Amino acid sequence: MSGQPETASHGEEQQHPIGLYFKVWILLFVLSAMSYAVDYFHLVGYLRWTLILVFMFLKAGLIITVFMHFAWEPSTLKLALGLPVIAIVVFIGFMAVEADYTFLSRLTFMSGGA
Question: Which residue has the higher pLDDT, 9 or 84?
């Protein structure tokens, strides 16, 4: 041959070790148990919602990365799919800050006269 590494053609399937899938499945089970523990131990307030969101994002990230084979995609596709998601999260953050400012402004200026 030409000395260059052979690459898989579009017709061939890529094989991943089954142990990887079992490890991710066990990790998803552990994260789900931890999410359940948040309710079991009656955590409240910001701690509760922060933990629930962290566990949710970790589980979603594992599922997307391994089971949907996102880890093995080219970096350009990762960038094309990841940047809009990051932009949406940033814009949601901007809207949350603006909503807090508007709410606090209304409390300040509308509750002072009566």
Answer: 84
If you ran DSSP here, which 8-state letter would residue 63 be given? I
Residue in the block written with tokens 């969101």: 53
Token pair of 78 as six digits = 């990762």
Of 22, 9, 14, 1, the closest CA to residue 70 belongs to 14
Cα-based distances in Å from 77 to 6, 16, 74, 83: 22, 20, 6, 10
Report the predicted TM-score, pTM, of the whole model to 2 decimal places: 0.66
Rounded distance, CA 78 to CA 33, Å? 30
Backbone φ/ψ region at 5: left (φ over 0), alpha (ψ -120 to 50), beta: beta
Closest CA to 38 of 57, 24, 59, 54: 54
